[in-house]
UniProtKB/TrEMBL annotation:
Family indicated by similarity: Belongs to the RPAP1 family.
Lineage: Eukaryota, Metazoa, Chordata, Craniata, Vertebrata
SUPFAM superfamilies, alphabetized: ARM repeat
Protein name listed in UniProt: RNA polymerase II associated protein 1
Domain RPAP1 C-terminal as annotated: residue spans: 289-354
Main location: nucleus
Biased composition, class Gly residues, residue ranges: 43-53
Keywords linked to the UniProt accession: Membrane, Nucleus, Transcription, Transmembrane, Transmembrane helix
Transmembrane segments: 107-131
One Pfam short name: TPR_RPAP1
Record domain RPAP1/MINIYO-like TPR repeats: where: 942-1163
């Protein structure tokens, strides 16, 4: 038999196969026909060509026609390209095109109005006066056949219609083809139907025909057939030739004789002058496309607006007012200048309203996401290159609406006023929260398009209107806020900063004659100063460039010397310019720069320079500050307006006093406590329900709004001012934070004043708020990180005050446990940039015995007594009480252990400490660090010594003597701290899942070959194993979830099995650790690994039932359903690999599952082989144990109890499986 060539055949093989084929004489599957080339003048015949002509080889296959068969009965089209397309009879061309359409319009059309019609879409009976249509099936027929059947079912018209007279219609049928009609008289039947339709149309006026047409087309929603029918009706029935001529009365305009070319009446050309039909809801369940007016507001689909507003156009739905996003995109590329400007301004308004959340309840979908996916950013960038100033202005306004959020700017100003303690990291800029990877790509791409150069050109050459200048400065500020790299690109752009400094920050100017001025060129702008401040925030080097190279130092002197009213500007603009100048100066001073702005330099270099400025020069500042504070505190009892203004100003005074006393500790004794005592005594009324405003607790469920885009994170959500929150004017957090800053400075210097301020720490609002924080799980995101930093700082201040006051005040000491829980919860929450706070908490509160009252109030003794009552009959179990007592004694050593393992964070700690304490010479940047992988400390930081040792040692082949110095002591301290947390601070480890705890503790077995055999380590591991296997915690242990850092728990279990076989020496602790994942509720894969690949481990897995801290039922119930595992159970029992003396627990488990399978109600063919092998084998003990097994019993010597004699039902079941009676089923056990 001849074979097809293979890819591996050589040339010799191919030649051999060809020779075999020729010898066989088999017929050819293809023939070569020589045809002349017609292009060279050849004839039609095969041999009619000339001898010298070039001929082609044409391969033909027998029984294959030259032309492709038609897939549809429809006539072929005239287009050659369309003839070769493959179409199916149930395929809708329009639907296929929409499905594969990737044009921008396909993306923009996703924004739809959330209005749905309740009408059903499965109506198969349409009653129409013109054509009586009844139910039919169109999916099984071609369109032409279905149409013929549809028309053949039309009942004859009433006699009145047959006898009616009127204008005659064309005699030939234009709609009916007659295909599908059976019988020899198909043509006559087709003509008869056509004549009946003609007669019916003649009796109707033009208005009636148009009305019936509208009704019919409105009901054509049943599929491709009815859509085709509607198109045919629209194209053929209602043509001018088929309609009766209209009279002048039916026309919307009355023609006059003097009009040119109006002698002949043409109704179709005048149809556009008729009024549009009123808007209506679509008769479908598909939502309608959203439409907007020129102000960016959403237009209701059923709202009837007048046409003079300019919102009607020749689009897809001319009767609906407004423009869709798709139409606005198309309009933005129009050749008409006004249309381009109008569309861009409309898009800007839509973006502004979308950011404000005005479309959340009306639209299904996100406007921002849809526009960005459709390429809005590049559309606006292209529009910015337009040579028309109006289009450029509209594009700049739209880019500002996309990138800049006015609500974010307002919220940042509020934060800078109320949360600005001296040197605190809370005063750092929030710019870096915008530096997420996706947005970084966007900005890099935007900057690579030459955006900065284009903005410089517009500012320098075009010199646009004031609004455009403000928009461009806001865009530059937003770009500079992204990252230090983006700020450097703004500084490096040629002539950009020179234009900003010369045109919008001049050193001299004249007062404008008009307000507002027609041009802002030559006047100082607050937006330009804000841009400089953001650039200075990016780093001390950028700030030095601004001060020295760009002349910012001279501008500061010019703007800060006079009062705001003397700046020759409008009052509001002057105040904004002065405020921004002070903010810029404050940023420069935070680097230690521009501090000598108002110190005159010596004219003669010979005299020594004046002494540097020190805090002693402002020693007299205390008296006026305290006086003003007393007046504001007294104003709290006044009217509501005065009370609100006092609450807004008091935090600033408290921050200033706190910084003053921090730098001048000698002036603390002169502080009169009555200055702040009303704030402390009236804390219940001044600090009402801080939990409702907390970002950590998030009781109101504040989250990103519907228009939040991950690649454009913001600081504020829509409506943030209306509800409770941490950064709203009505929030108590600014006052509470400022008060804690002042008290922290005072108590850190004057210990005797600590007891006077303890009332704040034990007040009911504060205690309730701290309790809620301990139970909370804050949601960290780029948008919430900045506000969480402020609340973390407040919690740190409260814990620090409690640490200072608790040893001297019994009232605060009673809440020491609560404050310790807050400290433990706060540690894994602290974000990058707060490493100094974490280090201070570890050094002070976390390992303080004063904040562990259980350690010296009988806690270990009470726990030990409870254990004696609970485990009176299990003396082998390690008691937890003595271990806790030892751990409490070792608390200082535990602190040193963890500080040593966190030594790699020392550079971050020092950097954050410099920023927190305001050490200006060492502050590199005022930008907050990026979030990166998450908080500064991982959630499982208490397990850090174990994980570190495992990563350093590797495969666990080293012995304890070969481990790094201090490794054994570090492991012991880590286990002691974990035991203490598991017993007294269980909530501190709530973020660590049970499977993660088990995986981290397993590092002890994998780090060294004999580390787990050390007595202190083994005692602590036994205690932790008991805590992990308590019923309430064991139920939450899910081994199907991969532990953090591992692909799956099964991989870890395989490594533990290998380590057990190598170095366990039958250790019961290691054995219990391996038995924990072998419970019945977990995957059978780990049990298959034990009884299959690592069956040798069964010889040393001698954990007794007394040593097991788990109920035996967790291993035996429910019965095993895996046949491969049951076979392995039986094989290990028969071969002697699993013996009751060596592995009693798994021996009982295997017996239980095999016995349940043997006497189950399953098919006999599955049970019979097991029963036959039990009968054949001569192991009497195995037969007795397996057949007479009754159930597990943990307190029995065998671990199970048996029947004295096999019950009758089981004996019958066994006999049926064996096929013969079995007389050896009695027993004595």
């Amino acid at each position: 038999m001849l074979q097809r060539p293979k890819p591996s055949d050589s040339e010799a093989d191919l030649l051999k196969e060809q020779e075999r084929f020729l010898v066989s004489g088999a017929p050819l599957a293809a023939k070569v026909i020589r045809r002349p080339d017609k292009r060279r003048g050849g004839g039609d015949g095969g041999g009619g060509g000339g001898g010298g002509e070039c001929q082609r080889d044409i391969v033909t296959i027998e029984d294959l026609p030259d032309d492709m068969p038609s897939l549809t009965p429809a006539p072929s089209k005239k287009s050659c390209s369309k003839e070769n397309r493959v179409r199916f009879e149930d395929q809708d061309t329009e639907e296929v095109l929409d499905k594969h359409d990737t044009h921008i319009s396909a993306v923009l059309s996703r924004i739809v109005v959330s209005i749905y019609c309740t009408a059903s879409l499965v109506v198969l009976c349409l009653c129409f006066r013109l054509f009586h249509v009844y139910s039919f099936t169109y999916s099984l027929l071609s369109p032409s056949i279905s149409l013929a059947l549809f028309m053949s079912r039309s009942p004859p018209p009433p006699p009145a219609l047959r006898e009616a007279s009127g204008p005659r219609l064309p005699s030939g049928p234009r709609l009916l083809s007659g295909e599908g009609l059976g019988g020899p008289d198909r043509s006559a039947e087709t003509l008869r139907i056509h004549q009946e339709n003609q007669a019916m149309l003649q009796t109707m006026s033009r208005g009636e025909i148009l009305e019936e047409q509208r009704k019919l087309l409105a009901q054509l929603v049943l599929g491709p057939l009815m859509v085709s029918l509607g198109a045919m009706l629209r194209a053929s029935i209602l043509t001018p030739e088929a309609l009766p001529p209209s009279s002048e009365e039916d026309l919307p305009l009355k023609p006059e004789k003097q009009w040119v070319h109006m002698g002949k009446l043409e109704p179709d050309k005048l149809e556009w002058t008729r009024d549009l039909p009123g808007p209506r809801r679509k008769g479908t369940q598909k939502a309608m496309q959203a439409r907007f007016d020129f102000a960016g507001s959403l237009i209701s689909p059923h709202e009837d607006l007048p046409t003079h507003l300019g919102l009607h156009h020749h689009g897809e739905e001319p009767e609906l007012a407004g423009y869709s996003l798709q139409e606005l995109f198309l309009l933005s590329r129009s050749q008409v200048i006004q249309q381009r400007s109008l569309s861009l301004n409309t898009l800007a308004s839509i973006l502004t309203k979308a950011r404000a959340g005005q479309f959340a309840s009306a639209l299904s979908g996100s406007v921002m996401t849809t526009l960005l996916d459709a390429g809005l950013l590049f559309l606006l960038r292209f529009a910015l290159d337009d040579n028309v100033e109006g289009v450029m202005a509209a594009a700049a306004h739209a880019i500002r609406a996309l990138l800049v959020s006015d609500q974010d700017e307002v919220r940042q100003r509020f934060r800078s006023v109320f949360f600005s303690p001296l040197g605190s990291q809370s005063s750092l800029s929030s710019s870096s929260l915008l530096s997420v990877p996706s947005l970084s790509r966007w900005f890099q791409g935007l900057l690579r398009t030459g955006l900065l150069s284009r903005l410089r050109y517009i500012l320098e050459v075009v010199r646009p209107s004031p609004r455009v200048v403000q928009d461009l400065l806001a865009v530059l500020t937003r770009i500079s806020r992204h990252s230090s790299h983006a700020a450097t690109q703004v500084l490096d752009c040629p002539r950009l900063m020179d234009v900003v400094m010369s045109e919008f920050l001049p050193t001299s100017w004249s007062a404008p004659s008009l307000h507002p001025p027609p041009s802002v060129y030559g006047l100082p702008l607050a937006g330009a100063l804000k841009l400089l401040r953001v650039l200075a925030t990016s780093g001390r080097h950028a700030c030095a460039r601004l001060l020295s190279s760009l002349g910012v130092r001279e501008r500061l002197s010019r703007l800060l010397s006079p009062e705001p009213g003397e700046l020759l500007l409008e009052s509001g603009q002057a105040l904004r310019v002065s405020a921004e100048a002070f903010r810029l100066w404050a940023v420069a001073a935070s680097y230690g720069q521009a501090c000598d702005t108002y110190i005159p330099g010596p004219e003669d270099p010979a005299p020594p320079p004046p002494p540097p400025v020190s805090w002693g020069h402002v020693g007299g500042l205390q008296a006026p500050l305290v006086g003003q504070l007393k007046g504001l505190v007294a104003g709290l009892d006044g009217p509501a307006g005065r009370r609100e203004s006092s609450l807004a100003l008091i935090p600033g005074y408290l921050h200033c006093l706190g910084a003053h006393y921090h730098q001048l500790p000698k002036q603390v004794p002169s502080l009169r406590p009555y200055a702040v005592r009303p704030l402390l005594h009236d804390s219940s009324s001044l600090l009402p329900f801080p939990r409702s405003c907390s970002a950590v607790c998030d009781l109101q469920g504040h989250g990103p709004g519907p228009e939040a885009v991950p690649s454009l994170p913001g600081l504020a959500s829509a409506g943030w001012k209306d509800g409770p929150g941490l950064a709203v004017p009505s929030s108590p957090f600014p006052l509470l934070t400022a008060l804690c800053v002042l008290l922290d400075s005072i108590t850190g210097i004057h210990k005797g004043l600590s007891s006077k301020f303890s009332g704040l720490l034990v007040s009911e609002p504060v205690i309730g708020y701290l309790g809620s924080c301990c139970r909370a799980t804050p949601n960290l995101s780029n948008a919430s990180a900045w506000v969480l930093r402020h609340e973390h700082h407040l919690l740190y201040l409260l814990v620090r005050l409690a640490h200072r006051v608790a040893p001297k005040d019994p009232a605060v000491a009673r809440h020491a446990s609560l404050y310790h829980q807050v400290a433990m919860a706060l540690l894994p929450w602290l974000l990058p940039g707060s490493e100094h706070l974490a280090h201070d908490l570890l050094c002070s509160v976390v390992f303080s015995k004063d904040f562990l009252p259980e350690s010296h109030s009988g806690g270990p003794e009470a726990l030990e007594l409870a254990e004696l009552k609970l485990h009176a009959g299990a003396p082998h179990l390690q008691a937890v009480g003595p271990l806790l007592r030892e751990a409490c004694v070792q608390l200082p050593s535990l602190r040193g252990c963890y500080l040593g393992h966190l030594a790699h964070l020392e550079p971050s700690v020092l950097g954050s400490k410099d920023a927190y304490l305001g050490r200006t010479p060492w502050v590199r940047s005022r930008l907050l660090p990026e979030l990166g992988p998450g908080p500064a400390l991982p959630a499982d930081w208490p397990y850090l010594p174990l994980v570190t040792l495992y990563e350093r040692t590797g495969g666990g082949e080293l012995q304890v003597e070969e481990l790094p110095r201090g490794a054994l002591q570090a492991v012991t301290h880590c286990l002691q701290w974990l035991l203490l947390l598991e017993v007294w601070r269980e909530g501190a480890l709530k973020a660590v899942t049970p499977v993660a705890k088990l995986a981290r503790l397993s590092c002890v077995f994998l780090s060294a070959s004999d580390l787990f055999l050390e007595r202190p380590v083994q005692r602590l591991l036994w205690a932790l194993l008991r805590l992990l296997t308590r019923p309430d915690r064991l139920d939450s242990l899910d081994l199907d979830v991969a532990p953090p850092g591992l692909a799956s728990f099964q991989d870890l279990f395989s490594a533990l099995l290998v380590q057990y076989e190598a170095v366990s020496f039958g250790d019961p602790l290691f054995g219990c650790w391996l038995l924990l994942p072998l419970q019945r509720r977990y995957s059978a894969a780990m049990k298959l690994a034990v009884f299959g690949e690592h069956v040798g481990a069964l010889r040393s897995l001698g954990v007794t039932l007394e040593q097991l801290s788990l109920p035996l039922e967790r291993y035996t119930s429910p019965p095993e359903a895996s046949l491969p595992l049951l076979q392995l159970y039986f094989r290990s029992l028969v071969t002697g690999g699993l013996l009751q003396a060596r592995c009693p627990l798994l021996y009982t488990v295997a017996l239980a599952h095999l016995n349940a399978f043997l006497f189950s109600e399953g098919p006999a063919q599955q049970v019979s082989p097991v029963a036959q092998r039990v009968r054949v084998k001569g192991l009497i003990v195995l037969k007795d144990h397996l057949l007479l097994f009754r159930g597990p019993q943990q307190d029995s010597a065998l671990g199970f109890h048996t029947y004295q004699q096999l019950p009758p039902d089981r004996a019958q079941r066994l006999e049926r499986a064996l096929g013969t009676p079995d007389s050896s089923h009695g027993g004595t056990h």
